């Protein structure tokens, strides 16, 4: 029977995209698995490889310096085309790989064993593989170990996805939001792509809790998040950073464009009538920082926006302030 999911590239890429993991920093949960592969199978190299449209990108790697390679030379690009493991005892004698630059040059792959990483809905988004620089056989027991560890990789992908959402607001958690910031920092470093960060606090939120109770405060959090979700562009990213503090990441936006967007958010929140007896109204204060050479870590970028947020709050609240390039004097 034809396995249609192995040939549906658009759906496979969509499945990979749902994990929102490409270009994120290394994570111990994945690194432990590649280290186990290296140790148990006795190989010098192991990677968790995710196959994007035109590249393979390594979520975890041991023994390999590169972070990605072109897809068309990736052994793992062959592995994802099947449900079964791919085993190559000697790449130099395999016509598919003998002239491959990963075989003839660094990292000098000679033998390979890879298992596909299949999502719960059946799409192979990548592989877990063991790589050696000498010809070798991988016995059935070793392949079974690799398959079991591959299942652990998929479990980690699923757990990571579930943990990315704040249960109350539906926005990204702080950890997931910072991971998105790191992706855009990487894009800025590599391609000088613009992006801006909005930080905002719900004004006088403690007063809401003290006057109406914490259940009312929870309703305010949910409604403000829903309002922002309706107001943002499809590619904008909303996160709850803690308590009543939120962040919005605006890709491809400079400070002026972010300022206009922040004012839309600010006005939408101020116009919101939140169902309660009596109905509740709240406002929010916004600080904006465009990415730049002095903001190429998530901490520095957040700190710059936080300076502007402080200025907005101390300027009367329910307003927008933009951090200058040096993040010292907000507009």
From TrEMBL:
GO molecular function annotations of the record: catalytic activity
UniProt xrefs under InterPro entries: GAF (IPR003018), GAF-like_dom_sf (IPR029016), GGDEF_dom (IPR000160), Nucleotide_cyclase (IPR029787), Rev_trsase/Diguanyl_cyclase (IPR043128)
Residue ranges of every copy of the GGDEF domain listed in the record: 193-325
Stored Gene3D superfamilies: 3.30.450.40, 3.30.70.270
NCBIfam families in the cross-refs: GGDEF (TIGR00254)
Name by which UniProt lists this protein: Sensor domain-containing diguanylate cyclase
């Amino acid at each position: 029977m034809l396995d249609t999911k192995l040939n549906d590239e658009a759906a496979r890429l969509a499945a990979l995209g749902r994990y929102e993991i490409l270009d994120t920093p290394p994570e111990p949960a994945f690194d432990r698995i590649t280290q186990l592969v290296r140790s148990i199978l006795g190989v010098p190299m192991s990677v968790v490889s995710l196959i994007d449209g035109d590249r393979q990108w390594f979520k975890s790697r041991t023994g390999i310096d590169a972070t990605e390679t072109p897809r068309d030379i990736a052994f793992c690009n062959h592995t994802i085309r099947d449900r079964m493991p791919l085993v190559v005892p000697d790449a130099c004698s395999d016509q598919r790989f003998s002239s491959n630059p990963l075989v003839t040059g660094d990292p000098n792959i000679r033998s390979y064993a890879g298992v596909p990483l299949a999502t719960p809905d059946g799409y192979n988004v990548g592989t877990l593989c063991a790589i050696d620089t000498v010809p070798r056989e991988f016995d059935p027991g070793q392949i079974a170990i690799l398959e079991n560890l591959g299942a652990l990789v998929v479990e980690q992908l699923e757990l990571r996805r579930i943990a990315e959402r704040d249960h109350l607001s539906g926005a990204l958690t702080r950890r997931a939001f910072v991971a998105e910031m790191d992706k855009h920092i990487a894009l800025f470093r590599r391609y000088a792509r613009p992006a801006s960060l909005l930080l905002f606090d719900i004004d006088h939120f403690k007063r809401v809790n003290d006057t109406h109770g914490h259940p009312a405060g929870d309703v305010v959090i949910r409604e403000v998040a829903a309002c922002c979700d309706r107001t943002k562009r499809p590619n904008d990213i909303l996160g709850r950073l803690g308590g009543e503090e939120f962040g919005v990441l605006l890709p491809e936006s400079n400070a002026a464009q972010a300022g206009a967007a922040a004012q839309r958010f600010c006005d939408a929140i101020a116009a919101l009538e939140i169902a309660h007896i009596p109905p509740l109204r709240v406002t929010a204060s916004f600080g904006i920082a465009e990415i730049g050479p002095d903001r190429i870590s998530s901490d520095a970028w957040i700190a710059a926006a936080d300076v502007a947020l402080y200025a907005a709050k101390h300027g009367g609240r329910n307003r927008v302030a933009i951090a200058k390039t040096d993040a010292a004097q907000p507009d």
